[in-house]
Amino acid sequence: MWSKPRSWAFRWPRLTGALLGLSGGVLAAGGGVLVAVLRDVPSYYALGYVLVVPTLAIGLMKLGLPSEKRALALWLPGALLIFGTPYGVKSAVLDWRGEQVPVTVTEVERGSGTYHGGETYRCKVEAGGESFWVAGSDQCDQYSRPGDRFEVLRDPEDLVSVSDPDPLIGFSFLVPCVGGALLVMTVAGSRGLKRQP
């Protein structure tokens, strides 16, 4: 039953491995773009997104038992894409067309703690007659009160969420990083599978 796929995979192990490595990278990068654009993603989607690359790397290990170095060459750029792409896309969009907007806090909401920190805070702010929430900002914390004013960086087309006006990563840095990670994963995948009789 499994003879045809296995024989195909092991007849052209480099091509099969390269396709698997590249597929994992593309899924990780594409998922990262979606996470940056879709702000209210349920946690089970995020868990599935994080499991994509390790699953493909384990699949390669089961098929061809690559060395630990080759498995690491898949996991490291995969992790970079999984955790870096959402921040990179948001940052690049804000660097490209973001505008600094002065806002006034109208409400502060305290949330439960996370696995890596204490309580979380988000502020409902108003700018130009429009209200929106700011979360994960250095300027919205336990000391924030209604009436406080600060500036945020906001995409006028509201593609990505607002951010602090910190130094940003531009597309000129993001694109080569993603391309390099995809190349490393493709090469590592192509060398991962072993030809079997």
Please list the strands of the largest sheet in the order they lie side by side. 3-2-1-4
Helical residues, percent: 40-55%
Class from helix and strand fractions: alpha+beta
Low-pLDDT windows of residues: 1-5
Write the element-wise H/E pattern from the N-terminal end onward.
HHHHEEEEH
Number of strands: 4
Measured by DSSP, the beta-strand proportion falls in: 15-25%
Report the principal-axis shape.
elongated
Rounded to an integer in angstroms, the radius of gyration calculated over CA atoms is: 21 Å
Count of DSSP H/I helices: 5
Could you give the distance between the termini? Answer: 17 Å
Q: Give the mean pLDDT.
A: 81
**Major sheet summary line:** 4 strands, antiparallel
Give a topology summary.
Elements: H1 3-11, H2 13-37, H3 43-64, H4 68-97, E1 99-111, E2 120-127, E3 130-135, E4 149-154, H5 171-190
Antiparallel strand pairs: 1-2, 1-4, 2-3
Helix pairs in contact: 1-2, 2-3, 2-4, 2-5, 3-4, 4-5
